[in-house]
Amino acid sequence: MQPIKTRAAVAWGPGQPLSIEEVDLMPPQAGEVLVRIIATGVCHTDAYTLSGDDPEGIFPVILGHEGGGIVEAVGEGVTSVAVGDHVIPLYTPECGKCKFCLSGKTNLCQAIRATQGQGLMPDGTSRFSKDGKPIYHYMGTSTFSEYTVLPEISLAKINKTAPLEKVCLLGCGVTTGMGAVMNTAKVQPGDTVAVFGLGGIGLSAIIGAVMAKASRIIAIDINESKFAIAKQLGATDVVNPKDYDKPIQEVIVEMTDGGVDFSFECIGNVQVMRSALECCHKGWGESVIIGVAGAGQEISTRPFQLVTGRVWRGTAFGGVKGRSELPDYVERYLAGEFELDTFITHTLPLERINEAFDLMHEGKSIRTVIHF
Ligand code: NAD
Ligand code: AHE
Ligand code: ZN
Ligand code: ZN
C-alpha cells in the first residue's frame, strides 16, 4: 500500500487554533490498522492538551480521541479486525497480555503506553507528516483526521448497525462517566451521589447513577444552563456553589445528613477535587477523580479526612477495558438502555472544528460531533 493524503486538523502549537491541512499518512505497519473516521466528539481533554497545560503535550499533533470509524486497511499480522469492520478507537488499549491486563485489577494496559505518550506508534515513529516533517499522534488515536493509523490493540470492534456519528461518544466521555459510577465506584441502589461539573463526563455520571439506582443525585455546576439537562437525565438536586457564602462541601453535607456515599469530580479543578472529597460521608464516603488537572497542580486535604474513613480514588476511561467491554456498551445503547442524542448539542464539519472548542469554552455545548 502507498502513502495516502488525508484531511486533518493540525495543532501546530499550544494555544493556536487548529489548522485544516492535507497531510501525508504512511500505510499501516505490522500490527497496525488504517481507519476512516466517520465522526468524532471533541472532549475537554483535547482542549486541555491544546492549551499547553498537558505535561505530555507535544506539537505539531493531530488531536482527537472520541471517534468512530471503519477499517480501511490492515497491516501485516492483524487478525482481530478486517476491512469494513466498524470500530471505536481506544486511548486505553487492551493487549490482553501485559501485567496490567492480566492483573484483573485495572483497564490501564501498558503495552504501548510509553510510545503513545510520546505521540508515536509502537515502533517509535509517526505515520503522519507534512512536507517531510513528522506530525505527532495523540493518545494513540488522532481522530481529528479523516484517515488515521492505530495499533490493532487500540480498536474495539462494534456492532455495524450502531450509528458511528453517535456511538463515537462512547470512545471517551459517555463511557468514562458511566463507567466511573458503575465500574470504579460500584454505586449501589439507594446510595447518594454528588456530581461536580455537568459537561459530557458529569452528565454521563448522572446516567450511570440513575442506572445504578442511586437514591439522590446532586448535580453541581457554576453554569446554570447545564441544570435542565442534568434534571432531564435524572439529577434530583441541582446546586450552584456561587449561590452560597460557605464552602460547597458544607452545603452538601448539610443537605445529606452528613455527606454523600459517592462523589465524582468531572472538571479538572484541584480545589473542587478537595470539595468533592470533603462532601463525602464520614466513615465510608468515596470520591472519584475523573477531571484532568494542569501541569504542576496538586490536590490537598487534611489527612484526617482519610483517617476518618473517606476514600480518594481516580479513574481513566471509567475503568472500562476497551476491547472486551466497550462493544457491550454499544449493545446496551442499541437496546435503548441509555441515549446519546442529549449529549450532541452541536454537529460541525471538520473545517469548522475550532468553533467546537469555542462552544465548549463558552459553556454552550455538551458535545460537538465533527463530521468528515
Ligand atoms: P466540559 O468542559 O464539557 O465540562 C466541565 C463542566 O465543569 C462545565 O459544565 C463547567 O461549567 C463545569 N465547571 C467548571 N468549573 C467549575 C467549578 N469550579 N465548579 C463547578 N463546575 C465547574 O468537560 P468534559 O468534557 O465533561 O470533561 C470534564 C473533565 O474530565 C476534564 O478535565 C477532562 O479532561 C476530564 N476527562 C477525564 C477522563 C478520564 O478518563 N479520567 C475522560 C474524559 C474527560
Ligand atoms: N497526559 C496527562 C494526563 C491526561 C490523562 O489523565 N488522560 C486520561 C484520559 S482523559 C480522556 O479524556 C487517561 O487515560 N489517563 C491515563 C493515562 O495513562 O494517560 C498528564 O498529566 O500527563
Ligand atoms: Zn476524553
Ligand atoms: Zn495490556
UniProtKB/TrEMBL annotation:
SUPFAM superfamilies tied to this protein: GroES-like, NAD(P)-binding Rossmann-fold domains
Broad EC category: oxidoreductase
EC number in record: 1.1.1.284
Keywords of the record: Membrane, Metal-binding, NAD, Oxidoreductase, Transmembrane, Transmembrane helix, Zinc
Similarity comment: family membership: Belongs to the zinc-containing alcohol dehydrogenase family. Class-III subfamily.
Keyword Secreted: no
NCBIfam families hit by this protein: adh_III_F_hyde
Task of the protein: Has high formaldehyde dehydrogenase activity in the presence of glutathione and catalyzes the oxidation of normal alcohols in a reaction that is not GSH-dependent. In addition, hemithiolacetals other than those formed from GSH, including omega-thiol fatty acids, also are substrates. Also acts as a S-nitroso-glutathione reductase by catalyzing the NADH-dependent reduction of S-nitrosoglutathione.
Cofactors, names only: Zn(2+)
Reactions catalysed: S-(hydroxymethyl)glutathione + NADP(+) = S-formylglutathione + NADPH + H(+); a secondary alcohol + NAD(+) = a ketone + NADH + H(+); S-nitrosoglutathione + NADH + H(+) = S-(hydroxysulfenamide)glutathione + NAD(+); S-(hydroxymethyl)glutathione + NAD(+) = S-formylglutathione + NADH + H(+)
Species per Swiss-Prot/TrEMBL record: Alkalimonas mucilaginosa
TM spans (from-to): 193-212
The keyword Repeat appears for this protein: no
Segments forming domain Enoyl reductase (ER): 15-370
Superkingdom assignment: Bacteria
Pfam families with a match to the protein in the record: ADH_N (PF08240), ADH_zinc_N (PF00107)
Protein name (record): S-(hydroxymethyl)glutathione dehydrogenase
